[in-house]
Design a protein that fits this description.
about 60% helix; alpha/beta; rod-shaped; about 575 residues
């Protein structure tokens, strides 16, 4: 008994953890999963849309939480067990046999139970009585009975005789269905003629397959069959139950018990009473019933939280982030801007360190181009640099599309839609934000290294040497006495050769800094684009994925059949 109590306490603690996780799960995801299913209030009236499976599953989950909270407030010393079956199966006769008195009456012309009848065995303890449970079940006071036969093993049992589940009266069928959703355990009664009824198996037994541990399937009216026929019917009944996924409690395994009895003769009733007594004594039927309800809800919710295959989605990987940033950098023209900055550095170095003659020729070419009405190349480059930055919107859209495809891989449909909406909502203002950020962070003046000034001084000295040699040579040619005629020639030759050599050396020396400056400019633009991409797209997507990870973890706690789900 102590072991049973300890096992019941463990089951109850596990149930409370699962219910708490389910409550958090609904709180975290209800707006995400119901938003797409909510109808547009401004839309024109039309035919009613089919019920959304996600909304139905969430509604069912909320109902289970409400029922669990309601059952928690009621005394656990009592266990409610319902006897359910079709018309003529002998439910009321079995109810009376267990109660030890004629408490439930059947119809005269057509044996049928008009309304639910209860029979209570007092728990024998001080505290709340069974009235709260009976009120919750909706049993009228006139239909409440007390057990006439005192049976200590059944203390705390509330036995219910339900209306027929195949009654011609729809109200009685709805009443039976409602009570089956509230009781702690069920006794399903079948007879030799309708034990294989497809409607009963599909609509009830398969629907309550998760509740096998709190179910007993009884083949009544066994006295009408020979012994061999009873065994054959039981074997066929077990086969049908197994095909419909109902676990059978055989060989010590948890599951539904299958019995054959005759309520009329009393044969086998004692065995059924023993099974019911075990359910009552454990005080765990309500916990197992609610745990089975949570299992059913978890199965209905699984498509909303776990994609096919059950693998965890990759989410925003480092590779996906880097590829998104690279595409944004291309969208703002960062590689082209870096190359342009490198070429601009080389042009300035050439102007600063080139020979005076080459600079003179360049200025003459610009002047001639202006006289012909052609814009000079350098002026055109300055005009293009002053233009506002232009962002390639198709490139931005492609970057966002590829990011969303990767982030949604492995996500359930509802969460993939939420991630996509978050990404495109931020992407709507991303091009304008990129243009604004690039305009505010325009490139400043190019830095001027000191060695450019030194090279310019060197070119000036070499030009002076050439001019000095030229003047010296002209003086010698007009007959004025000079010291050595080869010196002016040497000065002119040195100046003419050393100037281009110095410009060539400076051009070679400028390649490294120019490349570094171009890379720095490319990195600067790429960083600006990445910052805006993070703010408008990556952060909202990451927030949605983090919320999904939270609800996935909660779902793993709810679903007892998926302990490895992470």
């Amino acid at each position: 008994m102590n072991e049973a109590i300890e096992e019941g306490d463990r089951e109850e603690a596990a149930l409370h953890r699962r219910l708490g996780a389910l409550r958090e799960l609904l709180g975290l995801s209800r707006t995400r999963l119901q938003g797409a299913a909510d109808p547009d209030p401004d839309a024109a009236p039309s035919a009613p849309a089919p019920a959304d499976p996600g909304t139905e599953a969430l509604t069912l989950a909320g109902r289970v939480l409400d029922e669990a909270a309601a059952r928690e407030r009621l005394p656990k010393e009592y266990t409610t067990v319902a006897i359910a079956g079709s018309c003529g199966s002998g439910k009321s006769t079995l109810f009376n046999a267990l109660a030890g008195a004629q408490l439930s009456e059947s119809g005269v012309r057509r044996p049928t139970t008009a309304g639910p009848v209860s029979c209570t065995w007092d728990a024998g303890k001080s505290g709340p009585g069974p009235d709260g449970l009976l009120e919750r079940l909706g049993i009228p006071a006139r239909s409440r009975r007390r057990a006439h036969v005192v049976d200590p093993t059944l203390r705390g049992l509330i036995l219910l005789d339900l209306p027929d589940h195949d009654s011609l009266d729809a109200a009685r069928r709805r009443q039976a269905d409602r009570l089956l959703g509230l009781v702690d355990a069920m006794i399903w009664v079948v007879d030799p003629e309708k034990y294989a009824d497809a409607l009963f198996h599909e609509h009830y037994l398969r629907a309550f397959a998760d509740h096998a541990e709190v179910s007993i399937i009884v083949l009544n009216q066994a006295d009408r069959l020979p012994t061999e026929a009873v065994d054959a019917v039981l074997h066929d009944l077990r086969r049908l139950l197994d095909e419909r996924g109902i676990a059978l409690g055989e060989h010590g395994e948890p599951g539904a018990r299958v019995l054959a009895l005759s309520a009329l003769t009393g044969e086998g009733v004692a065995e059924l009473r023993h099974e019911v007594a075990q359910l009552v004594a454990s005080r765990g039927a309500a916990t197992r019933r609610l745990a089975a309800d949570v299992d059913g809800v978890a199965r209905r919710l699984r498509p909303l939280y776990v994609a096919d295959g059950g693998r965890a989605p990759a989410g925003l990987t480092e590779e996906a982030r880097e590829e998104f940033e690279e595409r944004l950098a291309a969208a703002v023209g960062a590689p082209a801007a870096g190359q342009a900055a490198e070429r601009g550095w080389l042009r300035r170095a050439d102007r600063a360190c080139g020979t005076p003659w080459s600079q003179l020729l360049r200025r003459l070419a610009v002047h001639q181009a202006e006289r012909r009405g052609e814009p000079p190349a350098l002026a055109a480059k300055r005009l293009r640099a002053a233009e506002p930055p232009v962002v390639s919107r198709p490139e931005v859209e492609q970057a966002v599309r590829q990011l969303v495809d990767g982030a949604c891989d492995g996500l359930p449909a509802a969460w993939a839609e939420a991630v996509g909406e978050a990404a495109w909502r931020g992407a709507g203002g991303l091009p304008r934000a990129l243009e604004s950020a690039l305009g505010e962070q325009a490139t400043g003046a190019l830095p001027r290294p000191r060695w450019w000034s030194a090279a310019a001084v060197g070119q000036a000295v070499l030009l002076a040497a050439q001019l000095l040699g030229l003047c010296w040579l002209l003086t010698a040619l007009i007959g004025q006495p000079v010291v050595g005629r080869w010196l002016p020639v040497a000065l002119m030759a040195c100046g003419a050769l050393a100037g281009p050599l110095l410009a060539w050396g400076c051009r070679i020396a400028a390649r490294g800094p120019a490349r570094a400056y171009g890379q720095q400019e490319e990195w600067r633009l790429a960083r600006l684009a990445a910052d805006q991409g993070h703010r408008h797209v990556l952060e909202p997507v990451a927030a949605e994925l983090m919320r999904y990870q939270e609800v996935r973890e909660r779902y793993a706690l709810v679903d007892s059949n998926a302990p490895g789900l992470t």
